[in-house]
Amino acid sequence: MKDNPMQYIAIPKNKTIKKEIKVITLDEFNNILNLFNKGTYQYISLMVAFHTGMRKGEVAGLTWEDINLKTKTIDLYPPMIKKKKGDIELATPKSSSSYRTITIGDTLVKALKEHKKYQNENKLLFGEFYINNNFVCTKINGSPININSISTMCNGIIKKINTHFTFHSLRHTHATMLLEAGANIKAIQKRLGHSNIAVTMNTYSHVTETMKQETVDLFEKSIK
User: Fold this and answer.
1) What is the 3-state composition of the chain as percent helix, strand, coil, each rounded to the nearest 5?
2) Which of 27, 105, 128, 204 minimizes the number of CB atoms within 10 Å of its CB?
3) Domain presence at residue 199
4) Residues 6+ positions from 116 with CB-CB distance below 8 Å
5) CA–CA gap between residue 157 and residue 98 (Å, rounded)
6) Mean pLDDT of residues grouped by 10 in the chain (224 residues)?
7) Within a domain: residue 71?
């Protein structure tokens, strides 16, 4: 046999299996939050992510200029990324949908106001040695954090609570809670900065499938 019949068969490549992102409960979030003091970048970064669904880089790159506490909105611009060890660079988002305005609630507004007071106190404490910048998430001396700072924080959380947790869990939980509460899927897509609604539907299919059944149940109830 001159020809090998198997040579014409395309062998599918192994697909990388994505790890399921953990959805945390409100009690679990509060337990995590209680690991850190108010006024720390750990505390405020967790609060922002849980209440907005913002990405890790977006939280790290958030500035006070982006936040309007009167209108209760956050205007998102380029996220912060770590380019190399010891360096911080503001990068352009993957798509224009990442540029968006997020409405925030009273709980986060209060937390942000308190955090600003702590930052002002630290400025007085460190005096001329304080690193002045406009970032929300900073170390006690004012130096900005990067996404590696957040990753290190999450590793510490895992060791303390002894369960799988990533910063993305907060984004995933935020969206899941909105869906379960009956929020509009299109509004959630815009809030998360997804490029199209299919991304939102696929990412949160575990919830949308339940919603489909609930929709049918509502119709059935209306005709009985």
Assistant:
1) 55, 5, 40
2) 128
3) no
4) 64
5) 28
6) 50 52 90 97 98 94 96 85 60 73 97 98 96 95 93 95 91 89 87 81 67 72 78
7) yes
